[in-house]
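subagent[fold] <- orchestrator: predict structure for attached chain, return tokens only, no commentary.
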Amino acid sequence: MELEILFEDGEALVIDKPAGLPLDRPRAGGVSLDDYIDTLKLGFQREPAPVHRLDRDTSGCLLLARNPKALKRFAAAFEERLVEKRYLGIVTGVPAEDEGTIALSLSKVSTAKDGWRMIPARKGKPAVTHWRKLDTRDGLTLIEFRPETGRTHQIRVHAASGLGMPLLGDPVYGTKKAGARTMLHAAALTVPRGEKAPIVAIAPLPADFAALGFVDPGFEDSGSEDLSPADD
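subagent[fold] -> orchestrator:
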């Protein structure tokens, strides 16, 4: 498997992470992002490091820093909520409204039977997600999610508990469909860099989204814009 590079310059890479590829080595073994890090050096001596996290099933834009200084700055941008993130998800149902904002604080719980998960909790960490309905087909809806915060499983919980409609295929917050993954895609990422041009990356809609008849209007509107400016 070859990882598609969506953005590259002297301090950053953005790859289109395939669904099913975990960032960390699974306890049971198997392929992970670690197996590709050496090839992603692309002539640099240092290995690039992921700045943020995507769930195993989530596809799309993953930012990697090519040096420790960049890693620290990019991580701070995420922490300070300066990064613009656009996700696409397919939910099981049709929202009555066309758009809205979900503000549900989240907390982690764990049980011996079910393992850990995130739940809405009044005393949890604040989490805010803006959403917009894009298309509906056969009882499924393509939703654009723009999270302000970056809590673990935020979009998955906000879809299930905020919209009342879990993401298709979500085994934790919805119902696992045989052979399907959690249908969530990190479609676009913009990271400001002060006086330097921002990092901008757009990941095309995956084949399993398209197989359900959906298209990404945001990707079509992007045209042929050059998303990989040269390092200055």
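orchestrator: received. Logging for downstream: Confidence is low (pLDDT under 50) at residues 223-232. The first helix runs from residue 68 to 79.
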